[in-house]
Write a structure and sequence with these properties.
The protein is of the alpha+beta class and 92 residues long. Helices cover 26% and strands 27% of the residues.
Length: 92
């Protein structure tokens, strides 16, 4: 993503319009694992996303070389794009 769009930024964040998914990519192959994990924890701490028994909502993540992927799992759950962006800015 970052290399394909020739971003001048070291890390690119893309958030799905429906608020259920987000992806991070880096141009230099830098390990994003710790950052993605911290973002997931930040998002799980949000009142609207906090895991509970009734909805089963949680933030899942997947990492690889130079990339990270976040997905909100559960019924009737949605992340505000601004919430994801704020969490990523705080961590990165």
């Amino acid at each position: 993503l970052a290399a394909g769009y020739r971003s001048p930024e070291p890390v690119v964040l893309a958030v799905a319009a429906d608020g259920g998914e987000a992806a991070l990519a880096t141009r230099d192959g830098e390990a994003l694992g710790p950052s993605v994990e911290r973002i997931a924890r930040e998002l799980e701490g949000d009142a609207d996303v906090e895991a509970d028994e009734t909805t089963g909502a949680s933030v899942e993540y997947d990492i690889g070389p130079g990339r990270g992927y976040l997905r909100l799992a559960g019924e009737d759950t949605e992340l505000e794009r601004s919430t994801v962006i704020t969490a990523a800015r705080e961590v990165l």
